[in-house]
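Appendix B. Raw example, untouched.
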Amino acid sequence: MTALMCGAEALSMTGFACYTTLLPILMKEWELSNTQAGFVGGIFYTGYMVAVPVLASLTDRVDSRRVYVFSCVLSALGAVGFALFADGLWGALLFQFIIGAGLGGTYMPGLKTLTDHLEGRAQSRATAFYTAAFGVGSSISILLSGKIAATLGWPAAFAFGAGGPVIAAMLVYAGMPGGRVRAAHAASPALLDFRPVLKNRMTRLYVIGYSLHNYELFGQRSWMVAFLVFCGSLQAKGAGLPLAAATFAAIVNALGPVMSVCGNELALRFGRERMIFFFMGASGLLACVLGYTASLPWLFVILLMCVHYGCMLGDSGALTSGVIATTSPEQRGATMAVYSLSGFTAAFLAPLIFGVVLDLAGGNTNPVAWGLAFGSIGIFGALAPLARWLAQRR
């Protein structure tokens, strides 16, 4: 079951990174400012935020496989629409919104479909592998969309992004047992009433942690390829080709699944809270430095980005397995809705704020502007260990 759901998760995300991978091409073709480009990157997560409270909560009431299949179809339609009809800012906003809404109905509902049939350490490990599959899916999306766009044009890359969700829907519906549904006679709050979830103090803490995690992670993901293109333009040979940048970005993303699983194993051995704050602080500090290294040798920049990305994903599995472990099965869908809504609200804000800082600080040809932009997404993680220390003293 874990292998099937991880494979389906990776397939459902073939359209996930098409826009961010092709950002340098689309910005030039459509003459987008950094703020507009960041807005399109962020609208993806707006679609997620709008969809996930309803779709994730529904999994407490109906078979989660049905929610998953519907959402895969939504993702496929959004990718096809982008390929056929997007010709500027407004079309990109619409279809990125739809693709994001599709992810809102596959990521957490898919996790509920899996964890409903597991308990204890097996559940924790399966959760870590499933969250790691997100990194696999994003790496596949970055690598293949970049290569397809280089040979067939960017619309073909989005057309490719529509195929994976269709295959994922068939795999999950045919291969997974139905998810656990609240009994008809059980007390059930209104669909979007999340007060019972938020009464759980541990849930609230994990929600805050996941929000900080997503703010840094998705800010970096949204601008990584564009940053690598800028770094390449500063090299002696001007090796700033989008295809090369997309390939390197996929390599960096490939570290995510390994670190997500390893971070969860470290959390099981040394304590979940300790490891979450360690990785969060380390990644935040590295983010505050990363943007200022653009003019250094490209190999050094790639290596530093790999370390940063690995630290960002080190707390991913531990956070998600932690919130599941502290939640009763009857409220798991609603808890995942709150968890995702908060986390992806931060994911929406990060690319937009990154773009605004980049514009205000001098534009995407200014190394200092890149440094400040990366600092805007790393500052909260860098301060998290200090906040924990102050709270312990009190």
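End of appendix B.
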